[in-house]
Amino acid sequence: MLNNIVELKHISKVYGDESILHHLDLSIPNGTFTTILGASGCGKTTLLRLISGLEMPNHGQIIINGKDVTDLPPQQRQVNTVFQSYALFPHMTVAQNIAFGLQCEHLPKDEISKRVEEALKVVHLEKFRDRLPKQLSGGQQQRVAIARALAKKPLVLLLDEPLSALDYRLRKTMQMQLKSMQRELGITFILVTHDQEEALAMSDNIVVLDHGEVQQMGPPREIYEEPANMHVAKFIGETNVLKTRITDANLETVTVEIEGLSFELKNKKGFTKADSINTVVRPEDLRVWDRSEIESTEGMMTGKVTEVIYKGTTVDLQVELDTGTTLFATEFFDEDDADLDYHLNERVWVQWHPGWEVLLHNEEL
Amino acid sequence: MKNFRTFSISLSWLWLGFFVLAPTLLLILTSVLSKGDTSLVRVDFTFHNYIENFNWVYVHVFLRSLKMAFIVTVVSLFIAFPFALIIARTPPRLRNFLLMLNVIPFWTNSIITTYAIMIIVKTKGLLNSALLGLGIIHQPLHILYSPLAVYIGLIYNLLPFMILPLYARLEKLDDRVLEAAQDLGANRWQILYRIVIPMSMPGIVAGCLFVFLPAMTLFYVPNILGGAKSYLLGNLIQDQFLTNQNWPFGASLSVALTIFAAALIWLYWYSAKNTNKDELL
Questions:
Q1: ipTM above 0.85, yes or no
Q2: B1, pLDDT greater than 70
Q3: For chain B, which end, N or C, has fewer CB atoms within 10 Å of the first or last residue's CB respectively?
Q4: Which neighbouring-strand residues pair with A199?
């Protein structure tokens, strides 16, 4: 088996005057659950349609399972799509919908019925085989669309925002089901979504797409903890972006001034004094203290609480620093701090766990 | 506002009462009266007219009308389907233009269009001159006053009734569904036979009804274009009223035809109800 099941080489796609994808290179490892994450209009659905063959690229090459399929129509590609609107055939029953793709291949009858049964079993719809799509709920229709695609035994299953039409609870359930389905079948799933939470929860591998370019690709943890640039940092999760001035830099450390305070931080990316950078800190990495809780205020930013949002497992705070910057902090209930009790306008001291910050080039977004 | 509503509703009921209900009742009444020698009808209740309907001569006319209407419907469907599909698949701007081209002859008085066809197909008409001029034929074709001319006239007049309901269905066809079929490996023919045609079935049935029923009764088309061999049910009824002066018999034929048409429509509703209620046209 090849390492990368899908390879896109130098892909460009233009609609009229509008350039959707520019010289995009992307390799998707075989057997992974890969998510293409991006805001609407970033070209992620176009990317999926290029892989399925429903769109043709203006430039570049598409390789599936080591074979150049750039000029092949969708019928001749071993990939299948689950459409956002499900696109079930309304005049066919569930079983007929699933059998359709197999009949097109002219498979023998008993092979077709065997595969239809298997597919129904995977999505737990055995009892609904003779229903028409309109007699099913949204979640059930979704599962028919998945079964219909899986029955074809594709090398890659493409999913175009498949969960966006479902309600919150059903979406959570389907996320888990999709993930376990992928693990059991072992085939590559490529899912397109704008929901970063969904991407983090489901994927082995996330591709962050913005402005028609791949911004970063990696496991969810890496994407979240080590964003490659400001696009990724701002798109994934909540972030605090702090203006940062480098006062001194060497190979190991960089001395910076943030909010009037001086910090010595690890220089992982080899910044020099000439670089313009930002410091990115996640809200959950900020600790917010009351004066009585701490002995020394050294290296801490001071400010006042301007908003308190109780969320059950956490308390979200909005803190306005004395310098005028607003920070967002998420505090957890734990043994250190069992009663998180914050009042509006309370004076607080804010710090972060050193080393958990990320330094990034300052880009105009 | 409320007065206006009451007014407009009662107006439409009055209209329907005067121009639909009353004539129909009169027709039914006439159909059970007897033919008069000095007056239009003689008040002498009888079912003789209906029994006379089953005279072989008239059954023969009915069967011939049925056959012609059937052929007209099938040919119209085969012409209209690709036509409607092409219109539905063109970009919206051009689509309206194509629809307009389709609707203009539909607005033109059909007797005028029928005469226009006569000018085209007559022995020294446009068609023959063109074909002779091009050297494709050496003898003029005798189309006028043959069943072929009647078929041409009927199909031409009724084609929009087939195209429009088909178009209405095909235009609603979801692109994603067609893409899904492609994605699942269906070729063009498989998409057409297994997806497009079944999904446009209500439009096909509606179009067939709209063409089939008038095709049996458009008496002026055989009158203008046809000979004795294309005498339709419509001509028979017309002749009872205008030539034979046998109004009761003409009325009984009309009532019988109406019952036949209603039965066909009921059959359609019934089958549509059992398959897809919300797709009724």
A1: no
A2: no
A3: N
A4: none
